[in-house]
Amino acid sequence: MAGRKIFLRFAQASDVERLTREGVITAPPPAKETWNQRIVRWLSEQRAGRRAVLVAEDATGLLGILHLVFDLPVGFKDPEAANGFDIAMIEGLHLRAGVPPEVGNEMVEEIQRIATKRNVTTLTFCIPMNQPRAIRQVKEWGFEEFRIMAEPSKMLAFFRKTV
């Protein structure tokens, strides 16, 4: 990353199509909606103050995306994960192929600064248990496992740390 100028900023409407077109989000689309529809919903939650959506960008384009959820939407409320006050959840770290892991580290550090400014004292992180590399990384960032949850198609591990 030496000499590479990386900008971290909040996502905006012009990023909606770029996130998939530039290879940041490459997973199959969510059930019952397109990625563009999902990203528009994230931006709506950001405008309402329930979510912060951070993107990393350099001269080559978008490099990654990361969310900080302050309050989960109706139907997904989980006060141990994000309660709208002092507990917030980090989710959705996606990096374009070939982007150095340091970009993800920098994004997590910035999200922690944003959380602190919002008086968040506990951060949580939710990861599918079939992603051992991601679980190792979250532990390296200082998060500790505190809960396992079964979903119809996967098992989720929840991690948390005090900030």
UniProtKB/TrEMBL annotation:
What Gene3D superfamilies is this protein classified in?
A: 3.40.630.30
Name this protein carries in UniProt = N-acetyltransferase domain-containing protein
| Biological source species | mine drainage metagenome
What taxonomic lineage is listed for the species of origin?
Answer: unclassified sequences, metagenomes, ecological metagenomes
